[in-house]
Amino acid sequence: MVYRGMLLISMLLIPIASQAQIYKCINNGNTVFSDQPCGDSQKTVTLDEISIMEGMSEEKIQQAGKKTKEVLLQDQISRTQEKIKALRKKMKKEIAYLRHKKLYSRNNLAGATWEESISTEMEAVTSKYKIQIDLHQEEIKQFRDEIKELKSKDAD
User: Fold this and answer.
1) What is the spatial distance between Cα 53 and Cα 92, in angstroms, rounded to a whole number?
2) How many angstroms separate the Cα of 21 from the Cα of each of 33, 49, 51, 63, 122?
3) pLDDT digits (tens, 9 = 90+) for 15-63
4) Which of 21-25, 64-68, 108-112, 151-155 has the lowest mean pLDDT?
5) CB 58 within 8 A of CB 9
């Protein structure tokens, strides 16, 4: 029942064009909404004709909405963590390239100057990625705070 409620609430979150046709189908006693015609038992309805709250109490609707939001926030956390992994991988790749470049510096003044400029470039690369990673980690913290807030409201 909670899954059904989450699905219905999720449908509300998806933007639907005002001209879109929605088909209400009854198969083996189950009501299904689709964007495709489903056969003999179909009825074309508009979005405002769909009674999402039919058979659900206000409390269950709110719980389903909170659960849906929590699932969406968890998904955002996972995606942001993947972005952080990708950034770290890019940073390691750039640093490895610069370290390799350093191997070709000569043991003279020009080589020392070149090596120093590569070291400065490595620091800039590290700083650039650290800033981006820190921003993503802050986003994750905010998402977790929102989840905590949702759960604390559930406990009330």
Assistant:
1) 51
2) 10, 12, 16, 29, 56
3) 444 445 666 777 777 777 676 777 765 555 555 444 554 556 667 667 7
4) 21-25
5) no
- Which single residue is written with the structure tokens 């039919």? 54
Give pLDDT tens digits for 57-100.
667 667 777 788 888 889 999 999 999 999 999 999 999 999 99
The three-point CA angle 40-44-48 to 5° equals: 150
| DSSP codes, the chain | -HHHHHHHHHHHHS---TT--EEEEEETTEEEEESS--STTEEEE-GGG--TTTT--HHHHHHHHHHHHHHHHHHHHHHHHHHHHHHHHHHHHHHHHHHHHHTT--SSHHHHHHHHHHHHHHHHHHHHHHHHHHHHHHHHHHHHHHHHHHHHHHH-
